């Protein structure tokens, strides 16, 4: 069996993991990135679909924080455009079948419906409302004041002109410039670690030896052996995002919308403007459904439920026609943070990790080590 050897192997080609891979390469390590998808990007990867190029197959936005936008601006060398329209929250509140046991719950539900049903809230208002809710529940009274403060110091949301495909393109340039090997369509199944020394994996009929392995909490191996098999609980997390090519126009233009209290939808984004080759009079909508809908219906059923709901909520007009649909699965069973820390200790630093829970928050967290990386 052919043998390859690296100082560091990185499992995942998400932008965050690539930034860390590049940093390590610039420190003088030999690095190889593995990903089981056909293109780089992890959760941010794009696909060519329905005759369009670089279609976002997940609903995305970037945390509205000045430092994060500054980081991305330095990284790309150009200003991140404002999202237009800005992301919104819609409180749908039309769950007519909701069963509520106590009178109090029924009263609160009616009040909520009266006040919020089908309201569209800006992210600014959401901050205040969240703060108010936590204050009323005595959870975090300070949050209300933080919400009010943020209302006046509001940082509008920004995103890439060409969506996450543009981001991934910069990341690809960074990989090339730093001459890092990327192996796609390749799943790392069984990991063997010798604590304090390194380890190996077998992939594509090759034995790949490493001194260190970089993973995140989303990375899943079939088995991990460190002297003996390491067994640990993971939190199952499976997500499907549905994409629609629609003949027809958006009734109410949106970029990214969170939908609360809805029996079908959780969030949607208009990914048409980010994709190349979309015909005039067509739109592309990406959507995420509630766990309940996901668990109890086939994909065929879900796509019909979503399409009907998009019409009911007036996002698209009644005459709109579904031309094509596609479903992307995201499977990442979480390894708990304390387990990752334990793996680091038990392996004597062979298994390393970075915190990748949220793109913006991680960019902020690792601003210093990654700040000088440029594609
Ligand atoms: C659908 C979706 C939408 C999201 N939207 C946002 C958003 O809008 N804003 C935000 O800030 N964050 C968002 N996130 C959070 C996102 O998880 C992080 O931004 C970041 O991408 C996490 O990076 P990661 O490398 O840990 O995991 P991922 O981005 O999930 O990438 C992991 C990659 O590694 C591959 N992989 C896993 N195990 C193996 C293995 N054993 N061998 C080889 N390859 C493997 C996976 O297939 C995947 O390509 C979203 C996540 C998902 C799933």
Q: Can you put this structure into words, describing what you see?
A:
The chain is α/β, with parallel strands linked by helices and 375 residues long. The chain folds into two domains: 2-58 and 162-230 and 335-370, FAD/NAD(P)-binding domain (3-Layer(bba) Sandwich), CATH 3.50.50; 88-94 and 238-331, Alpha-Beta Complex (Polyamine Oxidase, Chain A, domain 2). It is 31% helix and 28% strand. The protein has helices at residues 15-26, 66-76, 103-116, 123-136, 142-152, 163-177, 291-296, 299-312, 337-346, 359-365, 367-370, and strands at residues 2-11, 31-34, 46-49, 52-56, 88-91, 119-122, 181-183, 190-194, 198-203, 206-215, 223-226, 228-229, 238-247, 256-260, 265-270, 282-289, 321-331, 351-353. The strands form three sheets. Strands 1, 2, 7, 8, 9, 10, 11, 12 and 18 form a nine-stranded mixed β-sheet that branches. Strands 6-5-14-15-16-13-17 form a seven-stranded mixed β-sheet. Strands 3-4 form a two-stranded antiparallel sheet. A hairpin with a 2-residue loop joins β3 (46-49) and β4 (52-56). α1 (15-26) runs parallel beside α6, α2 packs across α10 (359-365) and α4 runs antiparallel to α5 (142-152). The longest helix is centred in the middle third of the chain and has 15 residues, at 163-177. The protein is globular, with a radius of gyration of 23 Å. The protein starts with a strand and ends in a 5-residue tail after the last helix. The chain binds flavin-adenine dinucleotide. Residues 11-12, 14, 16-17, 34-37, 42-44, 58, 60-61, 63, 187-188, 216, 218-221, 239, 241, 330, 332, 356, 358-360 line the site of flavin-adenine dinucleotide.
């Amino acid at each position: 069996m052919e043998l390859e050897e690296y100082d560091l192997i990185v499992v995942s080609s998400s932008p965050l993991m690539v930034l860390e891979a590049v940093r390590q390469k610039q420190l003088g390590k030999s690095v190889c990135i593995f990903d089981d998808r056909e293109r780089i990007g992890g959760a941010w990867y794009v696909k060519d679909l329905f005759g369009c190029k670089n279609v976002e197959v997940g609903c995305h936005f970037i945390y509205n924080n000045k430092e994060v936008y500054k980081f991305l601006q330095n990284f790309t060398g150009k200003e991140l455009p404002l999202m237009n329209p800005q992301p919104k929250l819609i409180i749908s509140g039309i769950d007519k079948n909701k069963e509520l046991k106590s009178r109090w719950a029924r009263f609160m539900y009616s009040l909520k419906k009266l006040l919020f049903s089908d309201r569209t809230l800006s992210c600014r208002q959401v901050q205040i409302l969240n703060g108010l809710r936590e204050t009323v529940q005595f959870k975090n009274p300070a949050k209300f004041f933080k919400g009010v403060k943020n209302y006046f110091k509001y940082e509008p949301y920004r995103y890439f002109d060409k969506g996450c495909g543009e981001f991934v393109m910069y990341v690809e340039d960074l990989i090339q410039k730093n001459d890092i090997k990327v192996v796609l369509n390749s799943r790392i199944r069984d990991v063997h670690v010798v604590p304090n020394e390194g380890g190996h994996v077998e992939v594509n009929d090759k034995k790949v030896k490493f001194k260190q392995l970089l993973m995140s909490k989303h990375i899943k191996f079939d088995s991990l052996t460190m002297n003996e098999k390491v067994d640990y609980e993971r939190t199952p997390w499976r997500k499907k995002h549905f994409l629609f090519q629609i003949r027809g126009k958006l009734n109410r233009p949106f970029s990214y919308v969170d939908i609360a209290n809805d029996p079908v939808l959780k969030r949607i984004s208009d990914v048409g403007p980010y994709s190349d080759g979309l015909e005039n009079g067509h739109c592309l909508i990406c959507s995420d459904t509630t766990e309940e809908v996901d668990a109890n219906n086939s994909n065929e059923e879900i796509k019909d439920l979503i399409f009907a709901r998009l019409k009911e909520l007036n996002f698209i007009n009644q005459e709109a026609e579904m031309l094509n649909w596609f479903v992307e699965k995201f499977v990442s069973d979480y390894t708990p943070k304390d387990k990752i820390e334990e793996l680091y200790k038990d392996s004597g630093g062979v298994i390393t990790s970075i915190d990748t829970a949220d793109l913006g928050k991680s960019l902020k967290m690792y601003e210093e080590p990654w700040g000088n990386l440029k594609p």
